């Protein structure tokens, strides 16, 4: 069991978590007593308050230390918006990795932590396995795209869900997909510009961004349902607000331009158009990988916590088994979800 889990109080107050996540939570905190509640509850002895994402802290009679959870960077084979079974979450006692307004545990690791040669060697091996198996966050997509010949400079702009906290709290300079496309096109008029819509938007489980339908006016290629790992192999650069695609591009040795302040920017590995002044330390790619994929997340299999390496192997197995095929029930299931969440 990780030391940071052992160090937690024996009682965790799980505040308003969706019921489908409960069984996965139990795998993350072996030996802890989880109290699933939606209103104030007095607990025996010391406890910590566990919240999902940016959920507001409830007004409890007794202040408790706050922990936040979110999806990890190697999550599943399938979309989180479809409630696909997760394989990793992150746990943060300071903030959250996508909220640049204040340091998170991940930022603390990168700013103040120390990584041994063994950490970096392990990170390198993990990165090589991720590339060998073509692993990304969601591992979805079945279509193909071929880079045109003769080759020219190809830039990928990944779309994001504009209502997400990652843009509200992590991109103070620019917050729209259309605005990003306009800026990238103006600075790179001769490049072949690809726009890849966010898979949640393509699945119509999240709404298009403001003016996003006009994106075709500023890009040369609009892509949907192409596996991200195959697309990254064919582009020269990635320009993004805060998308995890930027991190996945770094893993593959691609230049990355950041117009927001994602967790992987500010460490000397990206071109930062909206720099964050407090991030001054230079980090290697292996140190970034060690922090973001080894020390920060929690990985959990069917029987409990597992290692990052085990998670990559399991994702590779699931991905090979699915082979990009969509199950027959996916569209009816999505239709039901759209009704529940109110997206048309």
UniProtKB/TrEMBL annotation:
The keyword Transferase applies. InterPro entries: Capsule_polysaccharide_synth. One of its GO terms (biological process) is polysaccharide biosynthetic process. Keywords: Transferase. GO terms for molecular function: transferase activity. Signal peptide: none annotated. This is Beta-3-deoxy-D-manno-oct-2-ulosonic acid transferase. The lineage of its organism: Bacteria, Pseudomonadati, Pseudomonadota, Acidithiobacillia, Acidithiobacillales.
